[in-house]
Amino acid sequence: MISTKCLIIGSGPAGYTAAIYAARAEMKPLMYEGLQPGGQLTTTNEVENFPGYPEGVTGPEMMVQLRNQALRFDTDIRSGFINKVDFSGAVHKCWADDGTEIHAETVIIATGASAKYLGIPSEQHYLQMGGGVSACAVCDGFFYRGQETVIVGAGDSACEEAHYLSKLCTKVTMLVRKDDFRASKIMADRVKKTANIEILYNTETLEVMGDGQLVNGVKVKNNVTHEESIIPCTGFFVAIGHTPNTDIFKGFIDLDETGYIKYAQPGSSRTNVPGVFVSGDAADKTYRQAITAAGTGCMAALDAERYLASKH
Ligand code: NDP
Predict the structure, then answer these.
(1) Cβ contacts of 300 within 8 Å, gap of 6 or more
(2) Distance CA 69, CA 51 (A)
(3) So what's the pLDDT on residue 45?
(4) How many angstroms separate the alpha carbon of residue 40 from the centre of ligand 1?
(5) Which of 224, 59, 215, 245 is CA-nearest to residue 151?
(6) Residue 290: which H helix or E strand, with range?
(7) pLDDT mean over 287-307
């Protein structure tokens, strides 16, 4: 069994920033990195919108730097993930996948969210190559300026991202699998009125095409007429939703209907359980940026520090 003043669960920009602040406040944080050390940014190629990197930085490189910064102040970083929690008592109990039991005075949740993908092999291939598949237009749209892109999805996110891309790209083709949008009327109308967005209804993705390195088109099928066609593009964006990684907290932490953690108080990182704080995408379905995750990681560490100070 390990006792700690502060357990940080997750290691994206939220978790590492919380670790840097907690460690510098001499809370000797213990961090479990989770299944994907570094988080979603490790699947991103170039990050150009994180302040302080005028030349840009790759997602994996930035995560190594954040990790090193957390280590510099003696964060105890462990590989492995937390697979069970019990927040019912005064001490917060958590269990790691190797069976280690952790008793924490404070817990900072930084487990993030995972973008949903279609799951077809060609999409996963170009995603891993960094060759033109992305689940974040705000992050990666800039690389496709002056080019043609395709986006899948029909919710508010897809509409927002398609509109964002339309300002950068010569043409955006939107693939909607049903005969209508799921998005709110106002968001769908905005997309419909944008001249360089073409909407293909009843259309599904069969294959992301390319030369093995870079995307050059998407093969699609109309699920009513069964007609197949190829849409030339250099970027393929997937905007079919995100899943917050919050399953282990069910029953202890208040979640909204889609699984995102609810803040107990606006303007703070507090959850409904005293001593448990949340940061990053596990509680954010709106902004989902590295910089906002880092900001809330800082808030969570400061809130945890103040909570401990009020107890001792
Ligand atoms: P949603 O779950 O609302 O929408 C997902 C969309 O992806 C649906 O249109 C769905 O199609 C489609 N989809 C799912 N799987 C597939 C697939 N395999 N192939 C093709 N299409 C697929 O997710 P969002 O991320 O859009 O939104 C999440 C929440 O966040 C919502 O509550 C939304 O309102 C909110 N939000 C609000 C914003 C705002 O107000 N500014 C901006 C962004 C999000 P189908 O309709 O056929 O099921």
Answers:
(1) 14, 18, 108, 109, 110, 269, 277, 278, 279
(2) 16
(3) 67
(4) 19
(5) 215
(6) helix 290-311
(7) 96
If one counts every other C-beta atom within 10 angstroms of the C-beta of residue 64, the result is 15
What are the tokens at 10?
């997750």
Enumerate the active-site residues: 136, 139-140
Q: To which residue do tokens 């049903």 refer?
A: 178
Å from CA of 288 to ligand 1 middle: 15
Residue whose entry in the numeric block shows the structure tokens 């290691």:
11
Q: Which residue has the tokens 């077809």?
A: 120
Q: In the chain, where does the domain assigned CATH 3.50.50.60 lie?
A: 2-114+243-311, 117-238
pLDDT score of 79 more than 70: yes
| Beta carbons of 238 and 152 less than 8 angstroms apart | yes
The correct answer on CATH 3.40.50.720 for the domain covering 117-238 is no
Give pLDDT, residue 147.
Answer: 98
Instruction: Find out whether the beta carbon of 163 lies less than 6 Å from any atom of ligand 1.
Output: no
What tens digit of pLDDT does each residue of 40-71 get? 887 666 788 899 999 999 888 999 999 999 99
Question: CA 131 to CA 128: how far, in whole Å?
Answer: 8
Report the CATH number of the 2-114+243-311 domain: 3.50.50.60
Structure tokens at 26: 């001499």
Inform me whether the pLDDT recorded for 152 exceeds 70: yes
Tell me the pLDDT tens digit for each residue of 180-227: 999 999 999 999 999 999 999 999 999 999 999 999 999 999 999 999
